[in-house]
Every structure is written in structure tokens, then in C-alpha cells.
Design brief:
It comes from Fervidobacterium islandicum. GO terms for molecular function: GTP binding; hydrolase activity; ribosome binding. This is GTPase Der. Residues 1-21 are annotated as: Disordered. It is a single chain. The protein is built from 13 helices and 16 strands. It is of the alpha/beta class. It is globular, with a radius of gyration of 28 Å. The chain has three domains: 30-192, Rossmann fold (3-Layer(aba) Sandwich), CATH 3.40.50; 203-381, 3-Layer(aba) Sandwich (Rossmann fold); 387-459, K homology (KH) domain (GMP Synthetase, Chain A, domain 3). It has a seven-stranded mixed sheet, sandwiched between helices. Strands 2-3-1-4-5-6 form a six-stranded mixed sheet, sandwiched between helices. Strands 14-15-16 form a three-stranded mixed sheet. The protein has helices at 41-49, 91-108, 124-136, 150-161, 179-192, 219-229, 269-277, 280-287, 304-315, 333-347, 367-381, 387-396, 431-445; strands at residues 30-34, 67-73, 76-82, 111-117, 140-145, 169-170, 207-213, 233-238, 245-251, 254-258, 291-297, 319-325, 356-358, 407-414, 419-424, 454-459. It starts with 29 loop residues before the first strand and ends with a strand. The structure holds guanosine-5'-triphosphate (2 copies).
Length: 461
């Protein structure tokens, strides 16, 4: 009976002044987990998001940072925030802390899970938090955690009910009891507020793409070409903390986030001017992307600025696709491909792993290949290869290490970008030999097309 409570719909305290604004940058509705120390907030958070993120510990107050993640339940998505220690402490402490941040966080959220202890009952800290929640005017679900024992729970039940947030919802985070029902309740409450939880794009699956290049290279034209030709659905996402607009573009069954598309739309003269004199926006877009599409104006060839952008993308471990645009303006273009590839090998030798695409944005030529190359680079960034293959390739490596250097064995330790750790007898590994290792991996293990390869070394006697 206890772990299968009546449906609470309509029984929660409805309060005034609710807002539908969300807590962080995207438009997912936000649910906050609030409660005093040690009631099991982190445990509940981890169970609801389905993976471990915040640290669960017996010690009071070990988890301190606000943690945010998405809860995905079948096709419904919402955002969950573990407020950790924010709402804990003595009465004055809470109010001291709360003045700026806490109240704002409460008011900007859509629903609160007020977690109390269903085993040991309430203390004055719970009443302080309850007062604050009432004042904030946000919708609250009272969650009685640690309610695995009916006997204990029935003892504390009257006290919990008297808090004035309606029927408590008993769960056991630790034993995963009643959690699906809790999620169902959260979903129905959010849907009552008018949220369409099914439409939320799954941000974790987004392929983040930055289209960069010199002014006038044809970046906006390329973006528009992809969107039109692929009959893509576009959803703008305004950043709240930065002055940027990103766009989610759905192509086939994949979602792409085109980073900072404000720069790809029509710009005012002054914005245009600022962009020409400053590279800040480009750097920012590169840092926030997975794959960088470097657009080169074929009529001008590869410039110093293009080299710099490519270098930046490579150093940041991003996937890279190189585009020669305005291909229609090149005379006898079909006979010139080799010239352009030579130019690429000479001037962009440090990103020679990038796929090269020839496009004519105004004629809508090359879009399929461009999308394919973006996918290839993205896949390469995330690929893992077996340790056995790496070492087999190293054994067969033709280039010998410089005198005195011994390369024992290696393994892939990370993705985004693929990163390999090699054990050596001394840490001075010349750049030329590092390049030989990369080349061996690409030729014999996996080409990692479009992705840089990072190397790390560790000394071993
Ligand atoms: N019996 C029982 N114990 C639980 C349950 N959920 C969490 N706990 C335990 O309660 C203790 C506190 O859990 P946390 O998740 O760290 O609690 P918290 O509210 O995040 O604590 P702070 O980090 O202090 O804010 C841990 O020892 C958990 O194992 C539950 O459902 N039943
Ligand atoms: N012939 C030809 N012209 C193109 C092509 N792509 C773009 N253009 C033209 O080049 C000019 C610049 O294109 P945009 O797409 O605005 O270039 P951009 O890189 O976004 O430029 P900025 O906004 O200044 O950074 C426009 O006049 C386009 O019509 C192409 O493939 N072939």
C-alpha cells in the first residue's frame, strides 16, 4: 500500500506566480531536487538520470555542486537539477545564501521535488525549506525518500502530511522503489503546464558543427544550401549567457547543432565590421563544436587566416572538413582538382586527415558529400580501436624510434578526439616520431578520417 500511493494529480498545492522559464540555456522544463542534507537527493538524482554523476557519500555534505542532466523516459525528456547543498543548513544560513541565487533558481524552475526523510521524519531544517518553497510559489511534489519500511513510514506520515504540500510521495531511491511512478507524476505535472516533453531534441546526440572561414567565402550560402536541399527542420536556440544563436537542424534521422548561426545570417554592417576585425566569434564557435567546416573561397585559395583556423581546430581536437567553395568560378574545374589537392597538402599539411569537398553553394552542388563528410569526421572522433590492434601496428611500424628512445606499448585512452597513451623509457619524443606514430595508426589501424589524433606519453622503467 505504501509504495503505491494514490495518484496525486490535483492534490498538490497549486500556487501563484509560476513561471515557465527554464533554468539553463535550452527550453527543456526544469525540475529541481531540493532538501536538507543527507535525505538522499544525490541518490535520487542519479537513479532518475540513470547514471552516476554526483558523488554519493555517507558523510554529510559531500556533494556540493549543482548538477544538471536530462531525464529521458521513453520519448519524454525533462531537465533535472540536483541542488546539492544549496538549500541546506540552518535557517539564517539558507536565507543568507538564498537571497540572490536560491530564490531565483526556485522561481526559474518548473517543478520542485522536495525530498524529506521518510524513515526518520522531519526536523526544523525541513520546515525552513518548506517556508521558502511556499514563498517562492513554485509547484512542489513532496517526496518521502528512504520509505522502504512501511512501519517507519506510517509513523512519520502524519508529520509529513502536515507540511501542507499534500500527500507525500513515498520512494526508496536506494532500492529503486516507486521511481517510475514518480517520473510519471513529474511528467503529468509538466504536461499539465503545457510542456510538450516529446518534442525536446536529445541534445546528447547532437552533432555540433561550426561553419567557419574568411568573410565572403560563402558560409551562409553553404548553410542555406544544406538546410534547403536536405529539407531539414530548423529550430533556433538562443543562448542566454552568450550573445549567440545556435540552430538545431534535423537531417534524416540525425540532429545537428549548427553553432552560432547568428554569424551565418544576414548581418548588420556593424556586426559585419566587428567580425572582420575580430576572430573571437570564430574561436568561440570552434570551441563549442564537434566538427569544424572550414570554408575556403576557391578563387582566392588557402590563405594565412585559413591556416590559422585549421590549426585552431586541430589543437582543440575537433573534427575537420575542408570545403573549396565557389567551385563554379574555377575554369576547367574538373582538370583542376589535383592542383587544389596539392595546395591542400602543402598549406594544410597539419590537417591532412580532413576530407576535402568541392562545392558550389549557389548552384547547390556538393551538399550530399558535405553532410557525409561531417558525419564521417564525427564518427571518427568517437571511434575506439582495440589495444591489440594498436600494438600490432606499432610492432610493424617502419619508422624506428630515434636513438635511445624505446616505445613499449600503447592504447587508446579517450575519444573526442581519439587519444592514445604510449609507454616509453623517456618522455622526450620528437615531433617527427610522433607524426610517424600517428601515420602508422591511420594507415594500419583506422584512418580516423576527419579527426585529429592526440598522443600522450608516460615513462616506464
Ligand atoms: N535507507 C535509505 N537510504 C538512502 C536512500 N537514498 C539514499 N540513502 C542514503 O542516504 C545517505 C545520503 O544520500 P545522498 O544521496 O548523498 O544524500 P544528499 O541529500 O544528496 O546529501 P548531501 O550530499 O549531504 O546533500 C546515503 O548514505 C545514502 O545511501 C533510500 O532510499 N533509503
Ligand atoms: N559563384 C559563387 N558564389 C558564391 C558561392 N557561395 C557563395 N557565393 C557568393 O559569395 C558571396 C558571399 O557569400 P556568403 O554566403 O554571404 O559568405 P559568408 O562566408 O557567409 O560571408 P560573411 O557573412 O561575410 O562572412 C555572396 O555574394 C554569395 O552569393 C558559390 O559557390 N559560387
Amino acid at each position: 500500500m505504501l509504495l503505491n500511493p494514490k495518484n496525486q494529480k490535483g492534490e498538490q498545492v497549486k500556487t501563484e506566480g509560476q513561471t515557465n522559464k527554464s533554468f539553463t540555456t535550452n527550453k527543456l522544463p526544469t525540475v529541481l531536487i531540493v532538501g536538507k542534507s543527507n535525505v538522499g537527493k544525490s541518490t535520487l538524482f542519479n537513479k532518475l538520470i540513470g547514471k552516476k554523476k554526483s558523488i554519493v557519500a555517507d558523510e554529510r555534505g559531500t556533494t556540493r555542486d549543482a548538477v544538471v542532466d536530462r531525464v529521458v523516459y521513453f520519448d519524454k525528456t525533462f531537465q533535472l537539477v540536483d541542488t546539492c547543498g544549496i538549500f541546506e543548513g540552518k535557517e539564517d544560513e539558507i536565507y543568507e545564501k538564498s537571497r540572490e541565487f536560491t530564490l531565483k533558481a526556485l522561481q526559474e524552475s518548473d517543478l520542485i521535488l522536495f525530498v524529506v526523510d521518510g524513515k526518520n521524519g522531519l526536523s526544523s531544517e525541513d520546515h525552513t525549506i518548506a517556508d521558502m518553497l511556499r514563498k517562492s510559489g513554485v509547484d512542489v511534489i513532496l517526496v518521502a525518500n528512504k520509505s522502504e519500511s512501511e512501519k517507519n513510514y506510517s509513523k512519520v506520515y502524519p508529520e509529513l502530511f502536515s507540511l501542507g504540500f499534500g500527500e507525500p510521495f513515498p520512494v526508496s531511491a536506494e532500492q529503486s522503489k516507486n521511481l517510475d511512478e514518480l517520473v510519471e507524476l513529474i511528467i503529468s505535472k509538466l504536461e499539465e503546464k503545457g510542456y510538450d516533453l516529446s518534442s525536446a531534441p536529445k541534445l546528447e546526440n547532437l552533432i555540433r558543427v561550426a561553419i567557419v572561414g574568411r568573410p565572403n567565402a560563402g558560409k551562409s550560402s553553404l548553410f542555406n544550401m544544406i538546410v534547403k536541399e536536405e529539407r531539414a527542420l530548423v529550430t533556433p536556440i538562443a543562448g542566454t549567457t552568450r550573445d549567440t544563436i545556435d540552430e538545431i537542424v534535423k537531417i534524416g534521422d540525425k540532429n545537428y547543432l549548427f553553432v552560432d548561426t547568428a554569424g551565418l545570417r544576414k548581418k548588420s554592417r556593424i556586426e559585419d565590421f566587428i567580425e572582420r576585425v575580430s576572430t573571437f566569434r570564430t574561436i568561440d564557435a570552434i570551441e563549442r563544436s564537434d566538427v569544424v567546416v572550414l570554408v575556403i573561397d576557391s578563387t582566392e585559395g588557402i590563405t594565412r587566416q585559413d591556416q590559422r583556423i585549421a590549426g585552431l581546430a586541430e589543437k582543440n581536437g575537433k573534427g575537420i572538413v575542408v570545403v573549396f567553395n565557389k567551385w563554379d568560378l574555377i575554369k576547367h574545374a574538373d582538370k583542376r582538382v589535383k592542383d587544389f589537392m596539392d595546395q591542400f597538402s602543402e598549406k594544410l599539411y597539419f590537417v591532412d586527415f580532413a576530407p576535402v569537398v568541392f562545392t558550389s553553394a549557389i548552384n547547390h552542388v556538393g551538399y550530399k558529400e558535405l553532410v557525409r563528410s561531417i558525419n564521417t569526421a564525427y564518427d571518427s572522433l568517437h571511434r575506439r580501436v582495440p589495444t591489440s590492434a594498436v600494438n600490432a601496428a606499432i610492432q610493424r611500424m617502419i619508422a624506428r624510434p630515434p636513438h635511445g628512445l624505446k616505445l613499449y606499448y600503447g592504447l587508446q585512452v579517450d575519444i573526442r578526439p581519439p587519444t592514445f597513451l604510449f609507454f616509453v623509457n623517456k618522455l622526450e619524443v620528437p615531433e617527427s616520431f610522433q607524426n610517424a606514430i600517428r601515420k602508422t595508426i591511420r594507415e594500419q589501424v583506422d584512418p580516423f578520417t576527419g579527426a585529429p589524433i592526440f598522443l600522450k606519453f608516460k615513462e616506464r622503467e
